[in-house]
Design goal:
single chain, alpha/beta, Rossmann fold, three-stranded mixed β-sheet, 13 helices, 15% strand
């Protein structure tokens, strides 16, 4: 038996693959990743020489490749992480998000459906297609509104969120129309090791260590529910093992915090763990023009996954952010390797326009 993981060299995908194979008895993983800017083979360095990990450089839009991998490895499950996932990039260039998140998911669903239809008996009954999505498909919440449940309508407000909502609808339709045994998870904001430093938490860590400005959009009071990536991985394992076909499971950290508080928490941790002779890192905080259509608040109601599958996050924000900051301090070589010229140019251009 084996599982096929898409996007397994990205942030969440690589954490999942590493977590999965940390169990000596775990099934092998076929890891398909296109290695775009956020996909990184270095994330998987700990698996070099491990025969249980088969890495394939390829695109989820390549139907011939998908058919070959499914026929050769006959996975009992497909866990779909592959996606363009950065809101700011989707504003600048939405086309890539339509291609990967919608067209790519469609191609993957069709390949999975053909593979599943070719199975028989217990193998067909056991097969699962697990689609990893985001809370951003639900839109934005007001200050006093209840957290998103699985019954909330999709009301995406960014090109990224719209592309993920579309992929969620495709997955649902392939279940209801064709019977494909699917599972969908909608998670809150992840953070932790191996996150590409365009997202808030790693960007603040990296910039603070370099003495660069720490950009906060608008007033910094945009609220997110923060989920440590290791907890997300354990939730996906629970959904894959015990989730009901056709169901959606919201995965959250029960940690609603405004962006401004996140930045101040990181500054305080860095001041404690690696003091700066120039003074407290909070001096570097800079408020910049807010991005278009910026959702004000996300919050996940994760009671369904707890009630049905017995899952709850193990990390509080305080324990998770300390682990994360320590990881970036201990892995300066990884950070330096991903900060290519194209990354530096993009950050400079994007934030210069908001100064």
């Amino acid at each position: 038996m084996t599982i096929l993981v898409t996007g397994g060299a990205g942030f969440i995908g690589s954490n999942f693959v590493l977590d999965w194979l940390a169990d000596a008895a775990a099934e092998p993983v076929v890891n398909l990743d296109a290695l775009t800017y956020a996909g990184n083979r270095r994330n998987l360095a700990a698996l070099e020489g491990d025969a249980r990990h088969v890495f394939v450089h390829g695109d989820i839009g390549d139907r011939a490749l998908l058919d070959r991998l499914l026929a050769e490895h006959r996975p009992r499950a497909l866990v779909h992480f592959a996606a363009e996932s950065h809101v700011d990039r989707s504003i600048h260039g939405p086309g890539a998000f339509i291609k990967t998140n919608i067209e790519g998911t469609f191609t993957l669903l069709e390949a999975a459906r053909a593979h599943w239809n070719g199975l028989a008996g217990d193998a067909k009954a056991a097969f699962r297609f697990l689609h990893v999505s985001t809370d951003e498909v639900y839109g934005s919440l007001g200050p006093g509104e209840p957290a998103f449940t699985e019954a909330n309508p999709c009301q995406p407000n960014s090109p990224y969120a719209a592309s993920k909502a579309a992929s969620d609808h495709l997955v649902r339709a392939w279940h209801h129309t064709y019977g494909l045994p699917v599972l969908t998870t909608n998670c809150s904001n992840n953070y932790g090791p191996f996150q590409f430093p365009e997202k808030l938490i790693p960007l603040v860590i990296v910039n603070a260590l370099a003495g660069k400005p720490l950009p906060i959009y608008g007033d910094g009071m945009q609220v997110r529910d923060w989920l440590y990536v290791g907890d997300h991985c354990s939730a996906i394992r629970a959904v894959l093992a015990r989730g009901r076909c056709g169901e959606v499971y919201n995965i959250g950290g029960w940690n609603e915090k405004p962006n401004r508080d996140i930045v101040h928490a990181i500054c305080a941790l860095l001041d404690e763990l690696r003091p700066d002779a120039a003074g407290p890192r909070a001096r570097l905080i800079t408020h910049v023009k807010d991005r278009p259509g910026h959702d004000r608040r996300y919050a996940i109601d994760a009671r369904k996954i707890e009630r049905e599958l017995g899952w709850r996050p193990r990390q509080t924000f305080e324990t998770g952010i300390r682990r994360t900051v320590q990881w970036y301090l201990e892995n300066a070589a990884w950070v330096a390797a991903v900060q290519s010229g194209s990354y530096r140019d993009w950050v400079a251009t994007h934030y210069a326009a908001r100064g």
